[in-house]
Design goal:
Structural class: alpha+beta
Helix content: 25-40%
Strand order of the largest sheet: 1-2-3
Strand content: 15-25%
Radius of gyration: 13 Å
Number of helices: 2
Largest sheet: 3 strands, antiparallel
Order of helices and strands: EEEHH
Distance between the termini: 44 Å
Number of strands: 3
Number of domains: 1
Shape: flat
Mean pLDDT: 94
Length: 72
């Protein structure tokens, strides 16, 4: 089965941080591509060791809407 993890990437100091949306996973890299590659690797390990009920979050999951909310 194929599992898709939505990711949010942001810059933190000298690195880019990639965070999973559906599950709490994060990784970093010197570039956006490296951060996403590292997150993919972490996600693959997570899926490999996840319990069946943990994988249920991906069943019939839609892509999230990611946006910004500004507070003044």
């Amino acid at each position: 089965m194929e599992y898709r993890l939505s990711a949010v990437v942001f810059r933190e100091g000298k690195f880019y941080v990639a965070r999973g949306v559906e599950v709490e996973l994060a990784s970093q890299g010197k570039t956006v591509e490296e951060a996403l590659k590292n997150l993919k690797e972490a996600f693959e390990l997570w899926v490999k060791h996840a319990e069946h009920d943990e994988l249920e979050v991906f069943k019939d999951a839609d892509s999230p809407i990611v946006t910004q909310v500004v507070a003044a």
